[in-house]
């Protein structure tokens, strides 16, 4: 966990920007004794916001949309990992049948497009 002052130095980001991002709920730090404390995930998200602004020119109006889409993408990726883990725990015959079925969807779709 990092304090706001540490994050400002680490990211070389103005305090006003970080506070604004918290107010806009783009970053959701915890409160500890009345002070904001940032987890590793908060730090990574702040870094991502900086990069989106700098490298891709995402402005403050578009940022909530971009962050929402990225959150959804990461959520789907997490669900896919969980699904693949569950498939990996199936007995081999069921796993093979499921993988053949999934693979069969690709070949069926090829004839329909």
Textual characterization of the structure:
There is one protein chain. This protein has 5 helices and 3 strands, in the order βααββααα. It has 113 residues and is mainly α. The protein folds into 2 domains: 1-59, Orthogonal Bundle (Multidrug-efflux Transporter Regulator, Chain: A, Domain 2); 61-113. A 3-stranded antiparallel sheet has the order 1-3-2. The longest helix is centred in the last third of the chain and has 26 residues, at 63-88. The radius of gyration is 21 Å and the shape is elongated. Residues 106-113 have low confidence and may be disordered.
Give the secondary structure arrangement, pairings included.
Layout: E1 2-3, H1 4-11, H2 15-23, E2 30-32, E3 35-38, H3 40-56, H4 63-88, H5 92-112
Antiparallel strand pairs: 1-3, 2-3
- CA-CA gap between termini: 51 Å
CATH hierarchy, class of the largest domain? Mainly Alpha
What is the N-to-C succession of helices and strands? EHHEEHHH
What portion of residues belong to β-strands?
5-15%
Write a concise keyword list for the protein shown above.
113 residues, mainly alpha, Multidrug-efflux Transporter Regulator, Chain: A, Domain 2, 2 domains, 3 strands, 72% helix
